[in-house]
Amino acid sequence: MGSYLLKRIVSQKLPVSIDVFESADELGTGMPYREGMNADYMLCNAFSREIPPVTRPLIDWLESQPRRELGEWELSTHDLSPRAFYPRTLIGEYLGSEFAGLCSQARDAGFDLTIHTGCKVEDISVSGKQALVSYTNSGDGIQEDFGIVLIATGHTWPCEPKIDEARLVSPWPYTTIEALPQGAIGVLGSSLSAIDVVVALGHAHGQFEEHSDRITWHPNDTDSDLRVTMVSRNGVMPEGDFYYPFPYEPLQHLTKDAVAKEIGKGADGLLQRSFALLCAELDAADPDYLEHLGQEARTLEGFAPRYFASRREIGGLPAVKENLAEMRKLMRARETVPHRYALLRGHEVFGDILPHLSQDDYKRFSEALMPVFGDCYAAVPHVSLARIVAMYDAGVLELLATAEDAAFTQSDDGQVSVETEDGSRTFNALVDARGQSTKPLSELPFPSLAAGFSGDAGPILEPFRLDTGDQSSAAIYCLALPQILERHPFSQGLCNCDALAKVVVDDLAGRLAI
Ligand SMILES: Cc1cc2nc3c(=O)[nH]c(=O)nc-3n(C[C@H](O)[C@H](O)[C@H](O)COP(=O)(O)OP(=O)(O)OC[C@H]3O[C@@H](n4cnc5c(N)ncnc54)[C@H](O)[C@@H]3O)c2cc1C
Questions:
Q1: What's the 460 CA to ligand 1 centre distance in angstroms?
Q2: How much is the pLDDT for 450?
Q3: For residues 217 and 394, is the Cβ–Cβ distance under 8 A?
Q4: CA of 30 to the centre of ligand 1 (A)
Q5: Which helix (DSSP H) or strand (DSSP E) does residue 498 occupy?
Q6: Per the omega criterion (within 30 degrees of 0), is the bond before 245 cis?
Q7: By three-state DSSP, how is residue 44 classified?
Q8: Is the minimum distance from the CB of 45 to ligand 1 under 6 angstroms?
Q9: How far is the CA of 34 from the centre of ligand 1 (A)?
Q10: What CA–CA distance (Å, rounded) separates 200 from 177?
Q11: CB of 5 closer than 6 A to ligand 1?
């Protein structure tokens, strides 16, 4: 996010001097793309062309890399494609190199730019005209005043994750997962982070062998005792990546204009009216889709159960195996899946209504529709699914839904148990792969700033400028993920960073022009 903010400030030639604070030693990379935190077998689920360029597109950067360097990533020039998925750590190298290029551009353009690497911002306080930023540099505490602060601190994870009363294992750095001893290991979640955890266990305790399209998994020891169980509420995994035209083709019913009109009519019934537009879009994309799901699918609360029904009926990993085979076939034929493409494009437009929903309707949206949109944009690279299927075929992996109202319990010897739809399961360790949870502004990781917000302060909305009351005339913008996810649940993902940065920098440019 920080890179895209800097890119926008530089391209808009804002009259500011810039200080960048990064607690890590590398710049531009970010937590999900940093080596050490992530393994090189963990793939980014955005394909090359979807990633917004910083100074140049990822594919151009890849093509400029020497063959030897590509070889270290087991890539040849034939593997480079705007439709390909790449390891997150490779994307981290791209982002780091782009950040360096951006800094040069900024300085060439006359910006006064200071980079503070290895400097953790500990606090931000807002009294007087300026915001006081407190940070540490090699153990020394330093304070500096700024008139504008842009917060882009990414994810926040609990130090000791828990569910109910059970302690969980954090999935980062990935070496924690690789170090888990064999035996019964549970993974809480069944989406992209959970897939990463399972694949890390597969790498630690065995080997994946690729035979053209097919991947098999073999344990390191003949007496291997690895038994991995993914547990989630629904017991389903997102479907495989599918072929679709990009940039997106226009929608017919769920358009920006149509949604703006509905917003104009007021919050009362807005969710229902927007859902009707979504149904019209699905009908236009594939007249049989909703018909096939049944009348119930045309209701807000009935849509998600019908959407997930076939995967639920086939069952966790058998459904994954079937879907992977189908998506591979369609990808080869360059045939799109009309309802998935409509949902994928539609979720972005649907995002426009969310800040305008009443509290009750937002809750209704989160429970009824968000699981569908979340599932749809979490489309999984085929290689990742093939690794999951390989471990399933080897008999070491299952995916189960938790039983209704199931609670996780922990025994004195540390084992975690839960009731699933397939009976009770007990794990030596349960890994937390639920992804980022939302947090209110009162839980920002800067105590003085957070203290200015009560627990029930409303969510931060575009243009993401914090309302610090009369405390300060400094402009403080917040793009920290747990806070923006509160009302912008689609904002997570590399593809969104540039658009979010644009919103902030456009607003800032307007203020500076006054
Ligand atoms: C494990 C994981 C995998 C993901 N995979 C994908 C994917 O495949 N595709 C996709 O589109 N999205 C993915 N995401 C979503 C991700 O949110 C975005 O891709 C994007 O990285 C978010 O950018 P960011 O700048 O907000 O956060 P980050 O990239 O994490 O950057 C935040 C930076 O702020 C620094 N920082 C934090 N606190 C401080 C402080 N107090 N002082 C100084 N510096 C600080 C951190 O060190 C970090 O470098 C993934 C997320 C996670 C957690």
A1: 19
A2: 96
A3: yes
A4: 5
A5: helix 494-513
A6: no
A7: coil
A8: yes
A9: 9
A10: 7
A11: no
Helix (H, G, I), strand (E, B) or coil at 449: helix
* Amino acid in the structure at residue 71: G
Q: Report how far residue 444's alpha carbon sits from residue 450's, in angstroms, rounded to the nearest whole number.
A: 5
Tell me how far apart the alpha carbons of residues 496 and 479 are, in angstroms, rounded to a whole number: 11
Q: What is the pLDDT of residues 48-92, one digit of tens each?
A: 999 999 999 999 999 999 999 999 999 999 989 999 999 999 999
* Candidate of 153, 176, 496 to mutate for ligand 1, largest count of ligand atoms within 8 Å of Cβ: 153
Residues in the chain: 514
Confidence of residue 471 (pLDDT cuts 50, 70, 90): low
pTM above 0.70, yes or no: yes
Q: Are 444 and 478 in contact (CB under 8 A)?
A: yes
Name the band, by pLDDT with cuts 50, 70 and 90, for residue 159: confident
Give the integer Cα–Cα distance in Å for 494 and 155.
Answer: 13
CA 60 to chain centre: 24
**Tens-digit pLDDT profile for residues 218-231:** 999 989 999 999 99
Cα 144 to the center of its chain, rounded Å: 32
Strands 423-427 and 416-420, sheet pairing: antiparallel
For residue 276, what pLDDT is reported? 98
By the 8 A CB rule, do 98 and 104 touch? no
Residue 365 one-letter amino acid: F
Q: What is the pLDDT of residues 202-220, one digit of tens each?
A: 999 999 999 888 999 999 9
Q: In sequence order, which residues have a C-beta less than 8 Å from that of residue 209 and are 6 or more positions away?
A: 215, 216, 217, 218
The chain-wide mean pLDDT, for the chain, equals 96
Which residue ranges form the domains of the chain, and what is each CATH number?
2-156+437-513 (3.50.50.60), 162-237+381-432 (3.50.50.60), 256-377 (no CATH)
